[in-house]
Amino acid sequence: MEKLINDFSFGLFFWQALILVILIILLVKFAWKPIMTAITEREAGIADALAAAEAARKEMQNLQADNQRILQEARAERDAMIKDAREIKEKMIADAKHEAEAQGEKMIEQAKATIESEKNAAMAELKTQVSGLSLQIAEKILKNQLSDTTAQTELVERMLEDAKLS
Predict the structure, then answer these.
(1) Cβ contacts of 41 within 8 Å, gap of 6 or more
(2) Distance CA 155, CA 27 (A)
(3) Domain boundaries, the chain
(4) What pTM value is reported for the model?
């Protein structure tokens, strides 16, 4: 430790400090702006991706709400059909009990089949819309990432060529 203190050279210290200051000035002048530009572009890409994901989430919530509304309407329609079937059944019991039971069962089965087909159609439409939105989101995210990666690759290649020339 004493040897280091005794061997201290003010001239060497001065030149090292000067070289450090020049290096910092060069880095600020030539490297700071491209780095900050790349960081800003990346932040914008991430913000866009987050906004798209939030929009997709809201759209999915809206689709789920519509699905619930459709299911409730289908249940109400089913209940109304079942109620109608029961009223018809009670009226027909007075005329012919066996014929009324067969007719009521037939109407209930038709109501169930109608409800099931409407439910399946609604689910298929919902799946189609969700898959379309998912594909659009994935396409936008991939475009953003690929353009950023290309720009970053080109920057690295240019910096390597500059370093080889120097």
Answers:
(1) 148, 151
(2) 15
(3) 50-137
(4) 0.33
Could you give the CA distance from residue 118 to residue 161 in angstroms, rounded to a whole number?
64
Torsion angle of the four alpha carbons 154, 155, 161, 164, in this order, in degrees rounded to the nearest 10: -140
Task: Measure the CA angle with vertex 118, ends 127 and 80; round to 5°.
Answer: 140
pLDDT tens digit sequence for 104-137: 888 898 988 999 999 999 999 998 988 888 788 7
Q: How far is CA 54 from the centre of its chain?
A: 7
Q: pLDDT tens across 25-34, in order?
A: 998 888 888 8
Question: For the chain, where are the E strands, in sequence order?
Answer: none
Q: Using CA atoms, how far apart are residues 67 and 74, in angstroms rounded to an integer?
A: 10
Q: Express each pLDDT in 38-97 by its tens digit.
A: 999 999 999 999 999 999 999 999 999 999 999 999 899 989 989 888 888 888 887 777
Count of Cβ atoms closer than 10 Å to residue 95 Cβ: 8
- Cα–Cα distance, 155 to 157 (Å, whole number): 5
Question: 81 Cβ partners below 8 Å, 6+ apart?
Answer: 107, 108, 110, 111, 114
Spatial contact of 49 and 144, defined as CB atoms under 8 Å apart: yes
